[in-house]
Specification:
Elements: H1 22-41, E1 43-50, H2 60-64, H3 72-85, E2 92-95, H4 99-112, E3 116-118, H5 124-132, E4 138-143, H6 148-156, E5 171-178, E6 181-189
Parallel strand pairs: 1-4, 2-3, 2-4
Antiparallel strand pairs: 1-5, 5-6
Helix pairs in contact: 3-4
Length: 190
């Protein structure tokens, strides 16, 4: 050692002559920071719904896993739901990996030309955080009797909604936020 301290750059940006100047770098950093803040400041709409009626019968493997298809009534309800929520123009559609939630999402996904994305119901707080920080403004989330209300409560930052009864179907929530704060909550039948 000759008394010199070796420095390791923290990022690959070089400020050598001819490269990105410090002023340009600061401007780029400012623009990126404003973009992140603007994304969070957007108005957002969250549509939450429990899956439609599930079948009481089906193939043995699906029933043993607790993963039944929708019943004929449930398929009919999913179609009604798609017609009812298309006016909200969801840009992203999320469902759990269960057949009944995916089958509830399929009619609206087809109408909107969207791919159904899967979320982990054990990580609902992560899902909400990701959506609040996303550029997308409108989200549809299909869940279960014990997850849809949790999602609503996470958005509200209050424990207002209780788990749905096993026989409760036919309502959806529209929750609007601005800057991550809920501005309006509506519950609609379908």
């Amino acid at each position: 050692m000759n008394g010199e301290i070796d420095c390791i750059p923290l990022n690959p940006v070089s400020f050598a002559e001819g490269d990105l100047s410090m002023g340009k770098f600061a401007l780029l950093f400012l623009i990126m920071s404003v973009s992140v803040v603007m994304t969070f400041a957007q108005k957002k709409t969250f549509i939450l719904v429990r899956h439609a009626e599930k079948s009481a019968t089906g193939d043995a493997a699906s029933m043993a896993k607790g993963d039944p298809d929708l019943s004929p009534e449930g398929r009919e309800r999913a179609g009604r739901f798609a017609k009812r929520v298309k006016k909200y123009k969801p840009g992203e559609i999320y469902s759990t990996e269960y057949k009944r939630t995916r089958q509830t999402a399929e009619p609206i996904a087809k109408l909107r030309g969207k791919t159904i994305q899967t979320y982990d119901p054990a990580k609902q707080a992560d899902l909400i955080s990701m959506m609040l920080n996303a550029k997308m403004k409108r989200f549809l989330i299909i869940g279960h009797s014990n997850t849809v209300t949790t999602l609503a409560n996470l958005l509200l930052k209050k424990d207002i909604f209780k788990n749905l009864q096993d026989t409760e179907y036919g309502v959806f929530w529209v929750i609007r936020t601005k800057r991550g704060v809920v501005t309006k909550v509506e519950v609609f039948p379908y």
